[in-house]
Design goal:
CATH architecture: 2-Layer Sandwich
Number of domains: 1
InterPro entries: ASHA1/2-like_C, START-like_dom_sf
Pfam family, one: AHSA1
Radius of gyration: 15 Å
Family: Belongs to the AHA1 family.
Number of helices: 3
Distance between the termini: 41 Å
């Protein structure tokens, strides 16, 4: 059975603002890396069939070995589906020599209007088995908290 990791959060910003933060490379590099990491976008093509390449660097790699190198995770992400103010579907492939991190993970960012805000649920399927489920769900929750702080500060 395929593993599914999920995290949700209510964000005090309209769906259009949240969607914009999912498709802005500077915003994405700022909010997507979970606590303890920083990110850099190397390539950006925001359209279905396009995508981006992100380098995630651990601020302290002790006890957190990277998938690509001792301190980094490099991921190539393709945009599979973009529905303005509703959904972003990404297909992520980590650069890794270890087969436990191989494969394509699908990340679906679902946005739903909720009063004056947006309910955001991120669902990951096809998660490589080398990624610990509890750690991954904690990282997704951290990214959602960063996203909320980003869009709520801008709005």
């Amino acid at each position: 059975m395929e593993r599914t990791d999920r995290a949700s959060r209510l964000i005090a910003a309209p769906p259009a603002a949240v969607y914009a933060a999912l498709l802005d490379p500077d915003a994405l590099a700022a909010w997507l890396p979970p606590d303890g990491m920083r990110g850099r976008i190397e390539r950006w093509d925001p359209r279905p069939g396009g995508g981006f390449r992100m380098v995630l660097t651990y601020l302290d790699a002790t006890g957190n070995p990277g998938k690509t190198s001792d301190a980094t995770d490099v991921v190539d992400v393709g945009f599979a589906d973009l529905v303005p103010a509703e959904r972003v579907v990404q297909r992520a492939v980590f650069e890794a020599d270890d087969p436990a991190y191989a494969g394509t993970m699908t990340m679906t960012w679902q946005l739903a209007a909720a009063g004056a805000g947006t309910g955001v649920t991120v669902t990951a399927t096809g998660v490589p088995p080398g990624i610990d489920q509890a750690v991954h769900q904690e990282a997704m929750a951290s990214s959602l908290a960063n996203l909320a702080a980003h869009v709520e500060a801008v709005g």
